[in-house]
Amino acid sequence: MKHPAQSPTRRAGFTLVELLVALALAVVVTALVLATLAITNRTRRSQADRVACRALADRALGQLARDLERAFVFPKNDATAFTLSRGAAASNAVLELAFARMAPLPGEDHLRWAEVARVAYRLTEAGPTNFALTCTTQPLAGPAALQPVTTNAVFQGLEAFDVALFDGKLWKDTWIGSGASTNGAPRAARITLAAQRGLAQHAATAEVIIPVGLKFEPPKKDKVQGKNISEIH
Hints:
two-stranded antiparallel sheet; disordered C terminus; 10-stranded antiparallel beta sheet; 233 residues; elongated; alpha+beta
């Protein structure tokens, strides 16, 4: 007895078209995943740069502001004179701000153990938009006064930095003070800077009151109706 002929069974597998479609889908998915990872990494890096840039700028402004708040002028002593110079007058720097300040030593909270020093903030140029801010410190009293001047980097890679000093009426770009009296010190300082880290940019401005610049004058002894003006309330 003869059995009817049966068609050959179809072999399991993928056709070439199916393989090409699957490969194309895999390439698209991989590209999407890689693009998402790149965006995520770029966002994280941008956030990290922004935080670091702001922190560095705040630290630079904070250090300069603290020193300005501790500035002093000693009568008839030019080592404590307040100066703000630019260009050729700034010791081969773009800008130089120099003054004397009195600050407690690290770990101390009493002026008995204060360090009296002259500090100079210098802005040097490494490129059109690449500046470095450094601070030199020279103690004015004690054994440390015989040691060499120390230089510390305050900020590397600034896009811009500027200082203006207020004399009570006008903001000035330069200042030539004298140690003869407290009149040689400004009343306030305005500090502006712009910094960049990677893809992040940060600009900041700070205005600092300089206590030594606030001149104190005792009441005048003018007679008003038989009384001293200092006695009138």
